[in-house]
Fold this protein.
Amino acid sequence: MGLLFNTVINSLILSSMYILAALGFAFLFNMLRIFNLAHGAIYMIGGYIGYYFIVELGMNHWLALLLTTLLVAAFGMFLERFLFRRLKGDFNLNIMACVFVAVILQTTVNIIVGDKTMAIPSFAEGVFRTALFSVSYERLVTFAAGLFLLGAIIWFVNKTRIGLQMQAIAQHRDGAILQGIDINRVSAVAFALGCALAAIAGIFLGAYLRLSPYMGDLMLTKVVIIFMLAGAGSITGILITGLILGTLSSVLPVFISGAASDAVIIAIVIIILLIRPQGFFGYQVEM
Amino acid sequence: MKRAVFIGMLWLLLAFLFAAGCAEQAEAPEGPKSPESSVETLRVGGIFALTGFWNAAFDNSIMKMLDEAAIYINEHGGIKVGDTQYMIEIVYEDTESNFDGTASAANRLVYEKEVDFIIGPAEHFTPAATPVTEPAGVLLFPGWYNVVPDEIDANTPYTFGTCQGSLPHGMAVIKSMRRDYPDIKKIAFLSPDDGAIPYIIPHVEKVLKEEGFEPVGDLIPFPNETEDFNPFVARILDLGDEVEAVFVEKSPGPAAVGNITKGLREAGKDYPIFCGSPISVADIATVAGLEAAEGIRTPIATRNDPEMPPVAAELARRITEKYGEDFPLSYQSAISLFVLKEAIEAAQSLDPTVVRDTLESMERIDTIYGPGVLCGEETFGIKHIISHPLPVQILKDGKPSPGGWIEIGYIP
């Protein structure tokens, strides 16, 4: 019972964080056709900025979360305005720029913090114990925060004017422009939102797991898998495939030895993509 | 416009790389010269991860200690061969944290820089270096080994290891556990799954058996580079109440041990945890939390350890002075450099073959960790392991504390 409960909780926490990060990635691709390979590095930067606020400045965790999110969102807007907007949608140049940004961020953090092991202190101390299972408050808080943020994002995308404009651009960019949607403004918001979501996931997982200059690489792999399985243009798809990947990542290592579990996950993804290249819920993208 | 952006980005990248390259310049050591001696430079190759994951994880601190060892040796007259004092200059090449990079680095050192002696690589990259160093007759001292083929074996007559490998480190912490917990028998046994398990684990299991430990269930392998270790915690918990302690062997990073520790404590398990990797218990505590990591032990040196041998203590003092109290004390390759110095001076030659033959014939080799002895014929297929004492560190009252020095003794 304890094993089952812990595995379920673990898969839900991982899923919620994967989904948050993947949503940010999906916003940028769906709207701007930017395959943001810097997303993992932005997730990592979020974790380190959060660490700086919480550990170095002694700030309250939630205040640090808010400030980090705003800061990274502003960084996203900066990238959109001064880098990606100037590349005018050229897919190859965008890819190059993303790699460039990722390398700069990763190398900078590596030079500054190097081999120092870091982790953000828990958002909540203590363990909730019952006769059947025990779970730390940190895990519960991470899960609850992930759930709340997912709800907030879904509400934002479906109920606010700018969210609907984002959906319109994702569905038909030229049509949306003809309807008078300010593409630059919405793109800036999408960038800010995408980076903010990555930063939030970075802070929570930086506390739940630990920080490393290369933590973004692993997350980027997961995010790309979720996005490809979900298919371009589908937010619901991200939610469902995020849940599937989180569950697979938590459950398979319990039954399959060591590194083989990662290989099995990748193999499953490849088979699915061979059968359904557009993913479960998306549409075929023409570049 | 696109070209302008591209050129701008290229300039920024170049400027950034230039700034990073200028950030740290190696110190040029100067040593005392005796009036009748001539002074020359001996270039010793260093294959380490200057970039990539392993730089951040380990190699940066190993290189800093190696630099300090070279400065120390040079200050004390360098390596003396006849009337000549050789001042050591470490020439680094980058493994780029991968096998291809390691092979390229070895090639550059052997054929471009023409060095006869190489220290490193650390981690599991040695099998990529020996195919280059062995045919060239270059003496290699790996910074780490896992008892895998073409690392240190019958096919590598120019490669020597000190006690800086998974097996001796595992032995140190196992012996330390037995010393402090004479009644514990049943353990959960975990190891990173990096391809070395079939080669090293049988040797470790033998040591566990000799020391009276019995693994419960099968070995639990985990990918070292994974993020979430909770599934492996679940597997330990699934072993039941029979488990009395947890042993994480080979070279897991602080993230692995820290997250496993955190998960076990969260599940209410307070049994002792010991780890065969030379990582600071403070790093494990950073991930797991101080309370959770209390009592955890690893085979690594501790600052201000009263039992630390004098040269090692002096190097620790210098590293602390330069890089601060939190900087890891990674002696792996520094020990090798001192062994190389002793072997060259005993051989009175810079010919790697002569130095190798002399080293093979030495009955006792003084290392900065204490007296060493050549061994390893049965385990490695070649008597090229210099066994010496190893320190253990324990987290006590929230602080890394010395856990005594363990005699590894003769490795069969």
Summary: DSSP finds 14 helices and 16 strands in chain B. The first strand of chain B starts at residue 38 and ends at 48.
